[in-house]
Amino acid sequence: MKPASHSLLFPGSGRATPRRVVVTGGGILTALGSGWQANAAGFRTGVLWAVGRLASVARADVELLLPEVVPSFADPDPNVRGLAVWCVLQAGRRDLTGSYPSLAADETPVEIYREGEFHTTSTRELLGNR
Question: For 81-108, what is each residue's pLDDT tens digit?
Fold first, then answer.
């Protein structure tokens, strides 16, 4: 099965430059002009963070990616899980976490970069379950 892909426009030098982002249940891949692709957890967390940040300015574009982000809720890496949850919350789609009840009890530390620094939280705290 061919992975779902969505094209988003990211600002380039004075004009919007098309960048292709491919998000699949097995990981998040990207083609950034150079065609470089990766599936490392660190790269996936970066893409999830970027999608979450985009939610505040391009919610309609991000909405297209969210169904492909959801499988990351089951990722063995706690940072991937946590950032996937943060991403959908930024898009106002808490409902997407409903099929993963274990997230509400996940107290594994997760680091999220916001306001210029890293903050340690947990998926449970992100979902408001203190």
Answer: 999 999 999 999 999 999 999 999 999 9
> What DSSP state is assigned to residue 34?
S
Side chain identity, residue 89: L
DSSP class of residue 2? P
- What residues form DSSP beta bridges with 109? 122
| pTM attached to this predicted model | 0.70
Q: Which candidate, 69, 66, 17, 64, places its Cα nearest to that of 45? A: 69
57, 79 in Cβ contact below 8 A? Answer: no
Please, which pLDDT band fits residue 7 given cuts at 50, 70 and 90?
A: very low
Contact, 105 vs 69, CB < 8 A?
A: no
Domain map of the chain by residue range? Answer: 5-126
